[in-house]
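User: For my dataset I need records formatted as: sequence, then structure tokens, nothing else. Please produce one.
Assistant:
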Amino acid sequence: MPRNLNVCGAVMESKKRDINDMSLWDDAKRMLAKARAEGVETAWDRLDQQTPHCRFCELGTTCRNCVMGPCRISAKAEPGGKLSRGVCGADADVIVARNFGRFIAGGSAGHSDHGRDVIEALEAVVEGRAPGYQIRDEAKLRRIAAELGVATDGRDAIDVAADVVDVCYSDFGSRRKAVNFVSRVPARRRALWEKLGITPRGVDREIAEMMHRTHMGCDNDAPNTLLHAARCALADGWAGSMIATELCDVLFGTPKPKMATANLGVIKKDTVNILVHGHNPVVSEMILDAARDPEMVELAKRNGATGITVAGLCCTGNELLMRQGIPMAGNHLMTELAIVTGAVEVVVVDYQCIMPSLVQIAGCYHTRFIDTASKARFTGAIHFDFHPENARQEARKIVRMAVEAFVERDPKRVEIPVEPVNIMTGFSNEAIIEALGGSLDPLLDAVKAGTIRGFVGVVGCNNPKIKHDSANVGLMKALIKKDIMVLATGCVTTAAGKAGLLVPEGASMAGPGLQSLCGALGIPPVLHLGSCVDNARIMQLCALIANALGVDISDLPVGASSPEWYSEKAAAIGMYAVASGIYTHLGLPPNILGSEKVTDIALNGLEEIVGASFVVNDDPEKAADLLDTRIRQKRQGLGLQP
């Protein structure tokens, strides 16, 4: 068996967790058992090695922002009532707020820089230097252009796109008073942001200002720091992420409902298997295009395969799933286990949520691990320098490499643990409105009648601290029983699909009202709206409903949740949801518990400031009850039966 030092055959012999306690799924459990048998280390093994965690870090009371430290302080007063402080004099409130602010800035940077990359891809199309890319949804381009104040009448699509590129770039700068898509926000919410001084002005400006504010000797008032954290996140939600979503639709097509499949069963024993992983479809769309080339398919057949399978992991997978119906192999905690099947020829990554361990695990098999972005290099990976100008030719090289790797596959080490399940995808806002006959009125009527009592966006990640997908699935099932429709994005998608919640038949698990609506429309009780950057679709949908009713987003019977979150991006998403007026549940607390003031602001004070707050609960049933209570209150506020 191939060996890779410190990974293959090197799993620590300390007490191992019961595999049944690690994941909800049969495919995951079988691959965890195979990984142990073959001595392949996984995220769960490494978590056990890292436990117990540093208590100061968990509480957020460590500071490394200058070299007078690092400092770690107690949130409790010392004997005599004296507060513990860092070398500079910062107390727990200031240090926790600083750390959380930088955490939000990191998350906002991730999704927003994704948005910038998509602008650059559209710019390359405009300038004629992106062979293989094109504007696939000209109608949406023109709608967005009109919304952004760009003239469209009598103009070629390329000319319109050139102006859209310029306007979108301006949202990353420092000279605007507000980012452009703030125009979508209900007037009452915009007025509140203006009053609080948190209207997002520019993506890069808010991120840079957060880094400045949290430098030693700057913002040393915790509530003030948290207000700017909200502004920073709003720049992501209503600019960076929204731009990424809208322009990806322009370039690659606006999603429409379609059927696909999910779980490790989508990996095939008899085909060349290529997994795309990360977040940016600028890379994965071209890999798919190359894999569908008849010349590449014929090459695969000459080398003994029946064809080429492209399947997705995490959010790049979600992007291809939504638009192209490409199958989903798994979410965050399935990425290592997909390689353990022994049937993956190539893993192609762009950026974000990619565990460096994948390079080492690929080395335990015949799998090639390929990185494509200069901002996301992985030691030991094969690097292809992807740009719009060369993407087509580089993609063909990668597919050819996958075909060559297929010949090296060891059939004795291949195990495909399950058969794939069917899922329904492609619910963009445009598709939802089209399905409703071109108007939101039928949806609003269903809400008013109580057929649907409300909506919750269940989004994001996996975290090995929580039994894999148990909280995601538990919460979604509990919500739909209460006639609350779920809108899913990101890694939650695969969980919902494997649980049978992404097909119309899944409505049998819902309450009577939601069940009847799903039956009438032929839709699942959980609608898949895309990747985690596509939470912008949920924000826009909330704004559309609020504007139709003449209320603020905070008045709506809606909520948000990330039951198994782990990343900076998830924290930024949660913050812009709350700042937009959406009550937001987290399954795990952020590292803020070392400050009573910061914790109280997050759980209580934000309600008074922005009309929404965070709630933390690791029990999915209790979390569903909390969200249900909130929806009841908001329905009563609108004069509806709870």
